[in-house]
Amino acid sequence: MTTRALVVTSSILGAQGQSIALADHFTTRSNERDTIEVTRRDLVADELPHLGVAELSSWQVPAAERTPEQRTLAERSDGLIDELKAHDVLVLAVPLYNMGIPSQLKAWFDRVLRAGETFRYTDKGPQGLVEGKRAVILAARGGQYAGTEMDSQTPHLKGMLGLIGITDVTVVFAEGLAMGEGHRDASLKEARQAIDGLVAAL
């Protein structure tokens, strides 16, 4: 049985980004196994615009009634949601920018967190519609924030994933990457070992 993994990257540093290096390590290890199929989506190379009212409004129009422009706008979100649903594991390689996620990743979430498609409102609150999937967050950070009040990024990511029904979330931290070469190397080594374990369990 093949496990399909969608790896989403969002570092503006490209090949120099440490989160990209973690994503590459995950991909390399996964490609060594015949049972894992990896799809990569680079949100910087294939950047999404900020969500605007015209695109948001296009989702509210029945597909058969959309204008050509509305069809084009709606297809952007539809395609991303279809891609997400077609995979078993979502891997988010995420740098920390000013205590939050990159705007490129937020633009992706703005299109996959869609009422009526990936979650719905009920009298008991939101209900996720993307079921049976798990997520892995590869978090690369210059400082050390995990487990502290300053780590607003991890709850934000888990909250957005939970909204659509992905509650099985594993976080691999590579922290202190700007705190000296020794600290960086040790943290990256530990993160790579954690990724090895995750891939082996897929």
Give a description of the structure:
This protein has 202 residues and is an alpha/beta fold. The protein has helices at 18-31, 53-58, 68-85, 103-112, 153-163, 181-201, and strands at 3-9, 36-42, 89-95, 119-122, 125-128, 134-140, 168-174. The protein is globular and about 60 Å long. The strands form 2 sheets. Strands 2-1-3-6-7 form a 5-stranded parallel β-sheet, sandwiched between helices. 40% of the residues lie in helices and 21% in strands.
Q: Which regions are unreliable across 5 or more consecutive residues at pLDDT < 50?
A: none
Task: Evaluate the radius of gyration.
Answer: 18 Å
Largest β-sheet summary? 5 strands, parallel
State the helix count.
6
Total E-strand runs: 7
Which class best fits the helix and strand makeup? Answer: alpha/beta
How would you spell out the order of helices and strands?
EHEHHEHEEEHEH
How widely separated are the two ends? 11 Å
Mean pLDDT figure: 96
Shape descriptor reads globular
Query: Widest sheet: strand order?
Result: 2-1-3-6-7
Beta-strand content: 15-25%
Fraction of residues in H or I helices:
25-40%
Spell out the key features of this protein:
202 residues; alpha/beta; two-stranded antiparallel ribbon; 7 strands; globular
Concise summary:
With 202 residues, the chain is α/β, with parallel strands linked by helices. Helices cover 40% and strands 21% of the residues. The strands form 2 sheets. Strands 2-1-3-6-7 form a 5-stranded parallel β-sheet, with helices on both faces.
